Amino acid sequence: MQFFGSYVILKYMRQAKQGKREKNRQRGTVVRALSFFTQVGVTIFACVFLGVILGRFLDRVLGTAPWLLLACSLLGTAAAFMELFRLAKNK
Predict the structure, then answer these.
(1) Each residue of 8-19: pLDDT tens digit?
(2) pLDDT the model gives residue 44
């Protein structure tokens, strides 16, 4: 009877270990998804922000307000979309 009890305990321990592995696998999937969406947000922000900063700087230096700001903002937005397509393609 002692052998059977040990077998049952070992069986439940293995099942618990497999359950933990499955939970860790699911957590890893969630973390990867969150990191991807964070990367998307940071990419959009950085591209557009750099375009605006560059446009404002060039407008001040060259005195062409607001045309270079608009042009660089559009270029930053286009760069963000290109990077998003690249990220989606690699995913």
Answers:
(1) 666 766 766 666
(2) 94
Runs of H (alpha helix) within 2-90: 2-62, 67-90
DSSP class of residue 16 equals H
Q: Which two tokens stand for residue 74?
A: 């559009």
**CA gap 66, 52 in Å, rounded:** 11
Whole-number Å distance between alpha carbons of 40 and 81: 10
Sign of CA dihedral 51, 56, 58, 62: positive
* Mean pLDDT score of the chain: 84
The answer to whether residues 55 and 73 touch, using CB atoms and an 8 Å cutoff, is yes
Alpha-carbon distances, residue 71 vs 2, 12, 45, 85, 87 (angstroms): 80, 65, 17, 21, 24
- Measured distance CA(65)–CA(61) in Å, rounded: 10
Q: Give me the residue spans of the domains in the chain.
A: 2-90
At residue 23, does pLDDT exceed 80? no
